[in-house]
Amino acid sequence: MEMNASPNLELRYRQLLQQAFSSDSILQLINVDAILFLNEYSTGQSPDPRLTPLVPALGMIFMNLYSGTESQETISAVETVLRPLCKLLATRAVSVFEDLVLRRTIVVEPTQEPESDNDVEKTRCWYGRQPYRVRPFYEGKDIESERNVKEEGSCRKLYSTYSKNNLTGGLMALWCPHLVCLGFHKMPICEGRNDVFSAVFCYWEKAPKVIIYDFACQLGPYCMVREPEFFKNTLFAVDQMHANGHT
Question: For 103-123, how does the pLDDT look when each residue is reduced to its tens digit (9 = 90+)?
């Protein structure tokens, strides 16, 4: 890309391309909330500030491109390729999301009413509220296997860690940004993606805007292939402490 850009800008652009052309789902990079802002930018509008936290790799480009340190010639050259790329990413995200919705198949849709978790001794969980829904069974997806993990994300850290026999159960607790524990449930076996998925899907009326989890790289696809409408506006992120070792 001949644009006489600064090294930082070239690095940020390369990082965006690496994410865009990875083997993971485009929805790992572009969630549904970002599609409108990408389309607006692709038509020549200024980048919406709300787009930066939704697509951090793109936000880093904006920070470098419009910082006042790049020449107008460089800005124009970058925009010439960046705006069509944003349109392509938005179009691809819409296509993949609609395909997930159409292919979503449930074998067993629960008919029983959700049980209250008021009796902690009986249910082994407490989220301080009546569950909104019961978790269904999803055809071809609810049998934990290495194949399923590979199909739902390319990062190998989750399976290489959780497949070890020496890991035991414990408590899964969900916390808000104010350091308040919102609820917990007992895990009879080692932690898995279903523990977070089921807790959020059953006990939250609407999915959180952001879910930070040490294996969000695998949790995001796990949630989206099961309940794409429910999780379509959720941004899944790995915290810095657990970032080491992810591929």
Answer: 887 777 776 666 655 556 666
